[in-house]
Amino acid sequence: MLPLAPSVLLLALFMAGPVIWSFYISFTDTGLTGRSARTPEWVGFDNYAELIADREFPTSLVLTVVFVLGSAVIGQNLLGLGLALLMAKANRVVRAVVGTTVVAAWVLPEIVAAFAAYAWFADDGTFNQLLGTVGIAGPNWLFDFPMLAVILANTWRGTAFSMLVYEAALNDVPPEITEAAIVDGASGVKRLVWVTLPMIRGSIATNLMLITLQTLAVFTLIWVMTRGGPGMSSSTLPVFAYQEAFKFQQIGYGSAIAVVMIIVGAVFSIGYIRALRPGREL
Questions:
Q1: Would you say the pTM of this structure is higher than 0.85?
Q2: Could you write out the three-class secondary structure of 130-156?
Q3: Exposure pattern of 106-138 as b/e (b: 16+ CB <10 Å)?
Q4: CB 178, CB 169: distance < 8 Å
Q5: Which of the following CATH numbers is that of domain 55-276: 1.10.3720.10, 3.40.50.1100, 3.40.1390.20, 3.40.50.2000?
Q6: Could you give the CA distance from residue 275 to residue 282 in angstroms, rounded to a whole number?
Q7: Angle at the Cα of 154 (from 245 to 56), degrees rounded to 5?
Q8: Residue 58 confidence (pLDDT)
Q9: Distance separating alpha carbons of residues 229 and 147, to the nearest angstrom
Q10: What span, in angstroms and rounded, lies between the C-alpha atoms of 112 and 116?
Q11: CA pair distance 210, 206, nearest whole angstrom
């Protein structure tokens, strides 16, 4: 254990430390300026009681779940698996083109990807310009369908990670097992459902957990594209927490929202582990 001690200490300092501090701050009236910034007072569960009574909180919570399910669980996960299966069967040229195109979005700095997505979905942006060339008048995506726009943008931004995870997992599937299934007359779909997916279930659980936690923390993409609007129509929990903590200067209240985000992430993670643990059917 001694060689691991420095890594454990660093993780405790830079990861566990801020989480514990956020929990503590959420039980105080800490503000950004003024008396509450100098000498914050312990208020117990007042921030959480106020959060439950806040009519904007349920909306933000539902939007967060929709965003995670749409862009991570369905978008990145399924698209990444599909691309990995395609790459496994494709020739070298297709692999190079698809791999470069998908990974390019992932390696872009988040702020650059956010502005690129904004330019694509803006009212006079690239997407509507392309629709106009075929005589279709596109809507104002960021105003009329803000959640759909940010879900698609985040799916585009993060699919490469899932693709790479599943590519590595598929490469570890023993070819003799697949060949035996072919000899037994199993179709491609049956081989995928009854052979491939059960053998990579550990990678599925790991990928789902990681992309869910990453998606829960997405802020820059949404803030650049919609600023959580119009109104509250795309204000996920990170955006809601930012507005309360820095726009309205309620650090303690914003920290309570951040704690809720941690709980939501824990619920998703526990669900993945229980659903995909060995012994359970897919």
A1: yes
A2: HHHHCCCCCCCHHHHCHHHHHHHHHHH
A3: beeeeeebbbbbbebbbeebebbeeeeeeeeeb
A4: no
A5: 1.10.3720.10
A6: 8
A7: 35
A8: 94
A9: 9
A10: 6
A11: 6
- Residue 65 CB neighbour total at 10 angstroms: 17
Q: What is the pLDDT of residues 128-152, one digit of tens each?
A: 999 999 988 889 999 999 999 999 9
Say what the pLDDT of residue 88 is. 86
230 upstream amide cis, omega within 30 of 0: yes
Q: Residue 39, exposed/middle/buried by CB under 10 A (0-12, 13-18, 19+)?
A: exposed
Distance between first and last Cα of the chain: 36
Q: Which residue has the tokens 């020739």?
A: 91
Domain boundaries, the chain: 55-276
One-letter identity of residue 6: P
